[in-house]
Amino acid sequence: MFPILETERLLLREIKKEDAKGIFACFSSNDVTRFYGQETLEHLEQAEEFVDFFSKNHREKRGIRWGIERKGTQGIIGTIGFNAWSPKHKRAEIGYEIHPNEWRKGYITEAVLKVISYGFEEMDLTRIGAVVFIENVPSNKLLTKIGFQKEGVLKDYMYQNGKAHDTYVYSLLKMCEKGIVRK
Fold first, then answer.
1. What is the DSSP string of the chain?
2. What pTM was computed for the model?
3. pLDDT digits (tens, 9 = 90+) for 156-166
């Protein structure tokens, strides 16, 4: 069963076929994809493939991706979840995006905090990582604000529009014996 998470303003839920339009709205925006390592979508069918990919990753325990929906509304405004999930090594990488119309409203911070809590408490993770384009100032600020530690730079790590980009790598660790997060 797919876990549903709630915050004060958001519902984080399973992504369904009917969410392809919301995914397309995000990933067809150059503002969203420019620091994502994903080419901008041009056709709705590409977004439908994302839905299948997210579902397959969850079934195969390689990742989990929630649709971000504002409470009291229909349709997703973005997605958030864990990629590169390794249950054996108790680690995963967090990733997220939200439609530009919803930027600077605190939704991503709210969702990230909830997903991190779920990762440590329910998925038994001890490490949550993040890989972010150096140029993605808002995401870099967000991660450091909530306690992620910058571990270093990965040179030419991600390609966007045929060009290699350096990224920062971050981590947030959980001290298992005390059940608290350490930096």
1. ----EE-SSEEEEE--GGGHHHHHHHHT-HHHHTTTTSPPP-SHHHHHHHHHHHHHHHHTTS-EEEEEEETTS-S-SEEEEEEEEETTTTEEEEEEEE-GGGTTSSHHHHHHHHHHHHHHHTS--SEEEEEEETT-HHHHHHHHHTT-EEEEEEEEEEEETTEEEEEEEEEEEEETTTTEEE-
2. 0.91
3. 999 988 899 99
